[in-house]
Design goal:
Elements: H1 2-20, H2 28-48
């Protein structure tokens, strides 16, 4: 599951504009992707304990 999540994150981060067709000149979508991924890791670690 971790490999799938990491692969999806990398694909969206690197190629999200081409895959989904959004424009991100200021980098806010990439910032949101990184924040979501980091918060998911934090929440997953807290639930797993």
């Amino acid at each position: 599951m971790v490999v799938l999540a990491l692969g999806m994150f990398i694909a969206l981060f690197a190629f999200g504009g081409e895959l989904l067709g959004y424009r991100d000149p200021e980098g806010m979508v990439k910032l949101a992707l990184v924040a979501t991924f980091v918060f998911g890791i934090i929440c997953g670690n807290k639930i797993g304990r």
